[in-house]
Design a protein that fits this description.
single chain; about 475 residues; alpha/beta; five-stranded mixed barrel; five-stranded parallel sheet; 13 helices; about 30% helix
Length: about 475
Amino acid sequence: MSEYDVIVIGGGPAGYPAAIRAGQNKLKVACIDEWVNKDGSYAFGGTCLNAGCIPSKAMLESSELVHRAQHEFATHGIKVGEVSVDLAAMQKRRAGIVKASTQGISALFKAAGVTGLQGHGKLLKGNKVEYTNKDGKKEELTAKHVILASGSSPTELKSLPFDGKQIVDSWGALEFDAVPKRLGVIGAGIIGLELGSVWRRLGSEVVVLEALDTFLPAADGAVSKEALKHFKKLGLDIRLGAKVSGADKSASGVKLKYTDGKGEQTVEVDKVVVAIGRRPFTKDLLGDGTGVQIDERGFIKVDHDCKTGVDNVWAVGDVVRGPMLAHKGKEEGVMVADLIAGKIAEVNYKTIPSVIYTHPEIAWVGQTEEEAKKSGRAYKVGSFPFLASGRARAMESTAGFVKVVAAQDDDEILGVHIIGPMAGELIAEAVLAMEYSASTEDLQRTIHAHPTLSEAVHEAALNADKIAIDFPNR
């Protein structure tokens, strides 16, 4: 029986950082992961590195370059002639990026002294773990601490079960070997919008069916409104209040059936991507009598420090409460590894940024204006359009704006919302500011290089007090 200080079950963006940090803390660590790629190969990294965050960003980048070559290069005085897409080469590049990323984890494990075990891990009573290797051989391991980081899986519509060919999940949507002429996307959330953008740029006619009557309700209202305008400009046919009830499949495609305010509707497409969210993955994770509890939504119950209530058993990432974001899971994993080592650590759940990697990009952290208003606390708002940014104009990327929401009484920044170029990078300044409970005056007094996109954040903070320099104050 092998004994460890820490066993991590799950090698995705929450699990592998937990294992690495535990190794850095001089603990004896094993990380068990059962991810299997479509070619049968095992790989660490979970959904994020193998089938989500990383490959989707590779395809978003490639498709954006295609779009720019077709619609923007001429504005720069660059003549490229007719632009064609070699999808096979594009997919090869994506696969290469994924392989390099996942292989990098093995190198990081080696550097931190982590034992990587490929196969299935199952928590047993008394902090024991049943490890089944990829050949089916079972072994019982023991650990002083166990960290559950089993991640999440795509939610399936009962009326539209995945078949891996015509009806696919987000992973399947990244591996099409041909550009669908007509593509249906069910769900207008982050995943649906990113995947819809990829295939629209590459030539698909894309219709997005969203059951909710509001678009991007998690984002600030002004950002949602601006985003919808640009997605429609791209050519996404976004239909809100469209509740899918079923589909008829044939050799020629899929006829989706849905209802909206006008009654029963149908739309015919070649392929369908179901992107209605994800659910915690706990299949065969817990043996009898472990004491670990699962709530009504399928999440493992934990406290603020990710303790399960069972001595020395922790859970992190998508399998616990909170946003299903890789960076949230990573910070939870690192926190737990440090707490196990007796160090001081915590995750500030109020400063977790969200990013949608479309064009324009969308990013936010903290309260929306609607949330600030609902709280009853007096607040003020500052904004600045990228149209007034010299750097954005030079980039031919003037869509969108930065919006800052701050408290009226003590000037504390409550939230920052960005739609525009490099929003996912710009939001980091806002996250750092909020981590230190900064005020808009702190941002106002911070010198931003000129000309940069970050000046838009500076000017939005100035505008909160109606003292912006590069745009009329209103």
